[in-house]
Amino acid sequence: MIELQVDIPTADGAMNSFVVHPEEDGPHPVVLFYMDAPGKREELHDMARRLAAVGYFVVLPNLYYRSSRDFWLKERSEATLAQMFGLMATLNAATTRCDTDAMLQFVGGQAGADASRIGAVGYCMSGPFVMWAAAAFPDRLRCIASIHGANMATAAADSPHRMAPQIACESYFACAEIDKWAPPADIEALQAALVAAGTPHRIEWYPAVEHGFVFPQRGAIYNRPAAERHWERLFSLFARKLQR
Questions:
Q1: Domains, in order of start, for the chain
Q2: What is the structure's pLDDT at 147?
């Protein structure tokens, strides 16, 4: 495996990113990995490595680069949570378009990446990001996955569920049964929008698990069987849509 820490130039600055891919038999299809709110950290690097190990060129950017190159939630104190929510508030559909465009340009110049075969996965706060990315670049992304995505249906004009008519690729949504950030009413609105738009999709409920269940370092919230199911779904989606 080849691992790199690189600065990807964007319209807003240098986006420090973790890149990992197999050493041989390239070029490899690309997976854009959008981080969750606690930030770019070794736990996510390990998840990116797991994707790369089955044949993908994975790009995991620090989406907080405009404000911080190294924030991640090391402890859940009142102060650090406030800082995290403040950083989250700086990200939206416009920053997602900017950052996705930069990643697309980056992989287009990498010998190990096949920029004609690109998928994306987003966790928690980045569930909306993959929908914004797919809507902004419908001719570039072949598939997206949102894993316990938060705020998937809001009153905002750019709410993720309102992006459904602009999304051409297949999408997968893993939803935790116990999730205040994605209650059933939101997912019902999301599903209705996807059905109305005729967008190919699958919404899957994961029973008796909480928001964040895929992360091994999330303590009692981590649910290994459910986490492994999410990996099976990702591998299946990416194999069908990205592999030759």
A1: 2-242 (3.40.50.1820)
A2: 98
